[in-house]
Specification:
The chain is built from 8 helices and 5 strands. With 197 residues, it is α/β, with parallel strands linked by helices. It has a single domain, classed as Glucose-6-phosphate isomerase like protein, domain 1 (Rossmann fold). A 5-stranded parallel sheet has the order 2-1-3-4-5, sandwiched between helices. Helix 6 links the parallel strand 3 and strand 4. It starts with a helix and ends in a 9-residue tail after the last helix.
């Protein structure tokens, strides 16, 4: 049994490594970083949202980008995970429809110049797509993290990072690695922002 499990683990790791080897990853990070730095410099809010595993990734982004990138008394990233407002999510799902749980929150919270990051492994989650539609209509910069070919999300956003894998597990693995890559870069390599005046 141990040998069988070992072979499976080796195969899983190799498949994940293959999903990380393509140049798309560095290109995507390279396009996202300036957007996040602009948002920080202008005091804009970055909204993250997704379903299931992608919901937990959205929350993870907020704690890492919002907290782990703090350097001294410099300006901080303002981040919000729309999935964390359980009361709003359930109210919109119950009183309207689940497809509106993110778009309606954005309609009440977001401002032109903010950033919306939609996360969907398939790229076809209706509420993520509606959220991105609302974000674009309101003048937000839109970023989409997907996999499995990118789905509809890939063609809707300003910046798309679509993991070249047909496995939801590997796609979600890479989305979390993107979170950690961005956090580490913004903490260690990006210029620090002066404190707000």
């Amino acid at each position: 049994m141990t040998e069988e499990v070992g072979r499976y683990v080796h195969r899983y790791v190799e498949e994940t490594r293959a999903a990380l080897a393509d140049p798309y990853l560095a290109e995507g990070i390279g396009r996202i970083v300036p957007v996040l730095l602009r948002a920080r410099g202008e005091g804009r809010t970055i909204y993250f949202f997704g379903n299931g595993g992608s919901a937990s990734t959205a929350s993870h982004f907020v704690v890492d980008i919002g907290k782990a990138t703090i350097r001294g008394d410099g300006r901080r990233f303002k981040c919000l995970a729309l999935v964390d407002n359980v009361e709003s999510v359930t109210a919109w799902a119950n009183d309207a429809e689940y497809a509106k749980v993110f778009s309606e929150q954005l309609k009440g919270l977001a401002q032109t110049g903010d950033v919306a990051v939609g996360i969907s492994g398939s790229g076809n989650s209706p509420n993520v797509l509606r959220g991105i539609e609302m974000a674009k209509a309101m003048g937000l910069t839109t970023i989409g993290l997907s996999g499995l070919g990118g789905g509809k999300l890939k063609g809707m956003v300003d910046i798309s990072v679509s993991v070249p894998s047909n496995s939801m597990q590997h796609t979600e693995d890479v989305h979390l690695i993107i979170c950690h890559l961005l956090t580490a870069y913004l903490r260690d390599e990006a210029p620090a922002a002066p404190a707000a005046g």
